[in-house]
Amino acid sequence: MSAPATAATLPATEEAVTVVPLRRAVGALLRKDLLVELRTLESVPGMSLFALSTFVVFHFALNRNSVEGDLATGVLWVTLLFAALLGVNRLFVADAEEGGVDGFLLAPVDRTAMLLAKELTLLCYLVVLELVAVPAFALLLSVPFAHALPDLLLVLLLADLGVAVVGTLVAALAVQTRARDLLGPLLGLPLLVPIVIGAARASSPLLVASHAGTPAARWLAMLALYDLIFGLIAYAVFDFLLED
Amino acid sequence: MAAVEVEGLARHYGEREALADVSLSLRRGQTLAVLGPNGAGKTTLLRILASLLRPHGGRVSVLERRLPEESWQLRGQVGLLAHEPMLYRSLSAQENLRFHARLHAVGQERITWLLERLSLSERAGEPVRSFSRGMVQRVAIARTVLHEPELLLLDEPYANLDPAALELVGPLIGAESRRTRVLCSHDPIGALREADVVLGLREGRVAVQGPAHEISVEQLEALYR
């Protein structure tokens, strides 16, 4: 039986070096990450359970049947932030422990592919988390936001993008250290606080019983700008984080 | 034509010297056996040649690419079989190989061929964590040669393999593969049988070096005393 030829041959001539297209590489990495999560269930269930437990704790600690306005947004975003940190901490663990980063570095692939794939993976985790956590938040704390759902989704999307970008950067940095479980939250929290502030301020007018609010445009713009700045920083430094 | 050229290579981890003043030359198609006790610097040497670690001194050229400056041009041309199999334990053999195949633009037919060649087809859908160490090593070997690399960097490649498995992997990573190989081993007799050139390391420095036919088993065994 003769060996079939590979699709990409890479002889040792400079002009023949083939680089796998970025979109294909991102697709392969994202598919692998989601498959690993689906098999191990190490991140998303933990994040969701944490969020649910926290809402229950708030329900009893505040001793209220309903919350709204600043208090409601505070409860929501602080809970989502800490739940997200659980996912950030696990983002690179399988790759670091099972040699996946080395396997990736040996492939003819732009290293930005891993940055994009990890950001998308974290974004998927956050979307699933919010599909569980936001309805639970509304039920447990009787938060009136059904009327403002489209606006709230916009705030959630901008905040999620920021958490995905910052979280990936922090996770890539922390995973190379022995104290990664500690370093992830320590580095992540200060960098994620502006996102929480922006998201809380933007969504505060939405979570009121009078049904009169709209998200503050300047806070939405601030969130978008923060996402953009950290997106550019991550793009600039990610290669160096993966290297020796 | 030289596949690997190393001159005065140095690498340290903090204060500890992992490699110091290592020089070697390996022609295309040849096999270099690297021997030495644990901590001698064998794995560090392999990782530098794979462009995963930066040299801290000296000059390194692999497949005519200077490292680390031109390491990006080396990607896809090197197959590294390290202690860590670089496989996700929760994924099946098939899924692991498909993942690496996508990163190297390799087709499914090559995966199928390798799984058959290594007698893994029947259990290709099972998670790697359920495999024996020998089976994991066979999947790791399939991953190493998946993209038909020019240079094989092999760290104890025959560990955990039974005689039947050794026969299966021979044409892929053994002398029959006719690829340029750097082979780390603790087996002086086997290494001398397979190698064209031998490098013996002790505490990061060259202790024995030369063509395989000029080196004796006793010289290599003395590295471990």
List keywords for this structure.
heterodimer, A: 244 residues, mainly alpha, 9 helices, disordered N terminus, B: 225 residues, alpha/beta, six-stranded mixed beta sheet, four-stranded antiparallel beta sheet, 7 helices, 10 strands, globular
Write structural notes for this entry.
The complex is a heterodimer of chains A (244) and B (225). Chain A has one domain (21-242). Chain A is 72% helix and 0% strand. Chain A is built from 9 helices and no strands. Chain A has helices spanning 22-40, 44-62, 69-90, 93-97, 100-105, 112-140, 149-174, 180-203, 217-242. Chain A is elongated and about 60 Å long. In chain B, helix 2 (93-103) packs across helix 3 (108-117) and helix 4 (133-145) runs parallel beside helix 5. Chain B has 7 helices and 10 strands. In chain B, the strands form 2 sheets. Chain B has a 6-stranded mixed sheet, with helices on both faces. Chain B has a 4-stranded antiparallel sheet with strand order 2-1-4-5, covered by helices on one side. Chain B has a domain at 87-148. The N and C termini of chain B lie far apart (36 Å). Chain B is of the alpha/beta class. Chain B has helices spanning 42-49, 93-103, 108-117, 133-145, 163-173, 188-194, 217-221; strands at 2-13, 16-27, 31-35, 57-62, 65-67, 78-81, 151-155, 180-185, 197-202, 205-211.
Number of helix segments of chain A?
Answer: 9
Q: What is the total tally of β strands of chain B? A: 10
Q: Helicity range of the residues of chain A?
A: over 70%
DSSP, total strands of chain A:
0
Radius of gyration of chain A: 20 Å
**Which sheet architecture does the biggest sheet of chain A show?**
none
Mean of residue pLDDT values of chain B: 94
Spans of chain A with pLDDT under 50 lasting ≥5 residues? 1-15
User: Biggest sheet of chain B, in brief?
Assistant: 6 strands, mixed
Strand content of chain B: 25-35%
Encode the helix/strand succession of chain B as letters: EEEHEEEHHHEHEHEEH
Structural class of chain A: mainly alpha
**What's the multimeric state?**
heterodimer
Structural class of chain B: alpha/beta
Query: What is the element string of chain A, with H for helices and E for strands?
Result: HHHHHHHHH
N- and C-termini, Cα separation of chain A:
40 Å
Distance between the termini of chain B: 36 Å
